[in-house]
Amino acid sequence: MNNSKTLLILNLGKRDYKEVWNFQKEILFKRKINLIPDTLILVEHYPVYTTGLKGNLSNLLVKPDFLKLKGIPLYKIERGGDITYHGPGQLVAYPIIKLNDVFKSIKKIVFNLEEVIINVLKEFNIQGERIKGNIGIFVKNKKIASIGIAVKNKITFHGLAFNINMDLTPFKWIKPCGLDVEMTDISKEIEKNINLDDVIPVFIKHFKEIFGYK
């Protein structure tokens, strides 16, 4: 059976970060033994900070006690990239994709994910753009989406965080992705409240188109 053009989509709703982190590993193992096709996990997380393997904790601008007081955990995880924040009103997408002849490199996966975000933003009349030397998508120099991928057994996991309608305050307590950058979301850019259910079908449509899935 050729699973290469079939995509399994799992929309988990709002979930704890660690629970989904463990779930990704289960899905990755099933993908490795071809029990399932390439899989796209969509989720909204409760407040959490994560930092990549090479992330610099000096980019956390508050003391750990402050995070405890706020009830926000911090996890060091396997992906690339520096510290970021996940919280309600943000669409998080984890593509569990086998690297093969179609997707030969991580660079191509990252480029495609950026392209998906740019195309979704267009549908909301927002111009998203890349900034040379930075991964992710920006709107007028403000960051709207971050990307951090990991690969195990030639299968990708972790993924992207796309700001839809958030309380952006927790981003002020870090240097997002190690950058001195202001964060934004779709709702602020169009001055209208948009929720994840407005964005998810559009995101899936463009993801399937750009990655070439049925």
CATH class: Alpha Beta
Number of helices: 5
Question: Which CATH architecture?
Answer: 2-Layer Sandwich
Largest sheet: 6 strands, mixed
Within the CATH hierarchy, at the fold level, what is the topology?
A: BirA Bifunctional Protein, domain 2
Computed over alpha carbons, the radius of gyration is 16 Å
Structurally, the number of domains stands at: 1
Order of helices and strands: EHEEHEEEHEEEHH
Strand order in space, largest sheet = 1-2-6-9-8-7
> Which structural class is indicated by helix and strand composition?
alpha+beta
Fraction in helix: 25-40%
Tell me, briefly, the overall form.
globular
**What's the total count of β strands?**
9
Strand content: 25-35%
CATH superfamily membership, which one?
Answer: Bira Bifunctional Protein, Domain 2
Any overview of this molecule?
The chain has 214 residues and is of the alpha+beta class. It has one domain: BirA Bifunctional Protein, domain 2. The chain has helices spanning 17-32, 64-70, 106-123, 186-190, 196-211, and strands at 7-15, 38-45, 48-51, 74-76, 84-86, 90-96, 137-139, 142-152, 155-163. The strands form two sheets. It has a six-stranded mixed beta sheet. Helix 3 packs across helix 5. The mean pLDDT is 93.
How would you concisely characterize the structure shown here?
With 214 residues, this protein is of the alpha+beta class. The chain is built from 5 helices and 9 strands.
